[in-house]
Amino acid sequence: NVRLTPSGLIKLVDFGLFKQGTDKVISTRLGLSPAYAPVEQHPLAPGHTDQRSDIYSLGATLYHLLTGVLPEPSFDRIAATRDPLVPPERLNPRLSPHVAAAITKALHLAATERHQDIASFQQTLVGHDVPVVSAPQAAPARARVAVPPRRVYAGASEAPAYTRVAVPKLPVWPEMVLVPAGPFLMGSSSAYSQSRDDEKPQHTLTLPAYEIGKTEVTNAQFRPFVEGDGYTKRAYWDDAGWQWRTEQHRTQPSLWKNADFNGDNQPIVGITWHEALAYARWLSAQTGQNFSLPTEAEWEKAARGHTGRIYPWGNTWAVNRANSKEAGLGKATPVGQYPGGASPYGALDMAGNVWEWTRSVYTPYPYNPTDGREDLRGGAQKSCFTLRGGSWVFGSLALRAASRSYFAPANVSQDLGVRLVRHP
């Protein structure tokens, strides 16, 4: 682990992890952070760790710092049919080619393909050989990188001039949780007294594996879309959405400057279905990943699991597990404030906080993905889209995982946001 001290020093900590075991057998692979750990550090992996394992971890740290995105865990990468690691230069086009190449090489799954020592990593990273001078004889192990002497300027006029440039914020996608493939119960049984007609009949659906946002999209995550080309590039918008944006002269969400709703970690609200869809397409283009709005079925399975829970946490209402009308807070909270309300897959705030747009046209059950409800061609001009999850404005009945509502695609509300899914 890396820690930054108040004085600006960077320190490595937790070397105690390497002291576990007996006098004869010492485990070096018991403590790890998946995004930063190479394959050989996994407890079940063959082989052993060495300095190339540390080089992988340093490469992962640089990847995260310079792109704002956690690298895919090596254990997931090696199990995938194709390596899902997005090249760092795609996430941050301002990276120098030698920096991007150094990081990519450091993150190779095979240790033999990485930099074989830290000196070669350093040389590739800076783009040329780095002179190294020997330390004093009293401390031969403490070689140091030579640093040019600091120049002292006699006056301000002698100092070099620097130009400050505005740097656009890089896209950071929401943390995702995996929803495994398999069947689940969708809708409500007629035997359940609080069920509504549009939730019936209850039926079984089978979905392939996908990932869904651990939380709703936040204002901080939406900001690069606003400050970049999200509202100006036609390619991100469907026909009806671009027509709406043009007619409304929209350049940001309707509540973007409202202090009650624009905290960095609050969910983005005041967005239309058009803006939510454009954001998903924009994020896909920026990251090379396949993001979209969830279908009703994807949303509901992620919220209640395969056994058809009434609420994400179980079958009994609990006021302390969600931001609902009963909680009495009167606005959306920062995401993730109710860990006790997590779904079976670890998704948070799927009950309450804000309603969430889906890509599904509001249509009677049973749910059939081939009946046109997921065909967006022309649908955005004439249909209403399903909302899920309930919000801080509504009581427990609306926060059930099977509860459905709907809105026209150009409508907005202070308690309506979005959560994304990602497909392979």
Number of strands: 14
What is the CA–CA distance across the termini?
A: 30 Å
Radius of gyration: 25 Å
- Tally of individual helices: 10
Poorly predicted ranges (pLDDT <50, ≥5 residues)?
18-30, 132-168
**SSE sequence, one letter per element:** EEHHHHHEEEEEEHHHEHEHEEEE
What is the element layout, followed by pairings?
Layout: E1 2-4, E2 10-12, H1 51-67, H2 74-79, H3 88-91, H4 97-106, H5 118-126, E3 132-133, E4 144-145, E5 176-179, E6 182-186, E7 203-207, E8 210-213, H6 219-227, H7 239-248, H8 273-287, E9 290-292, H9 296-304, E10 355-361, H10 379-382, E11 385-388, E12 405-407, E13 416-418, E14 421-423
Parallel strand pairs: 10-13
Antiparallel strand pairs: 1-2, 3-4, 5-8, 6-7, 8-14, 9-14, 10-11, 11-12
